[in-house]
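Comment thread on ticket #2218

A.B. wrote:
> Attaching the input chain for the structure job we discussed in standup.
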Amino acid sequence: MRKMRDYYIHEGELIRSYSGYLLASFSPFSFSGIHLIFDAPQASMSAEYFSRASEKLARRIYEDYLDRQRQAASGIENTDAPG
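C.D. wrote:
> Ran it. Output below, let me know if you need it in another format.
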């Protein structure tokens, strides 16, 4: 068995449920967004720890995404990007 948690980044928002994502992205011309999937073996950690850790990671990824969007909008080159 495995633990699994999904998050979505859509239109600048972090969405924590699939139903919320469906409502936000229902328009046929809507940007599909970003799907984050966190997965771990059931025995590797408690459900509470997994929930906290996945929420923290999703928040960090979301904040990084927002920073990069702001940089792109202002024309600032991202020096952290690979390549």
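A.B. wrote:
> Thanks. Noting for the ticket: DSSP finds two helices and three strands in the chain.
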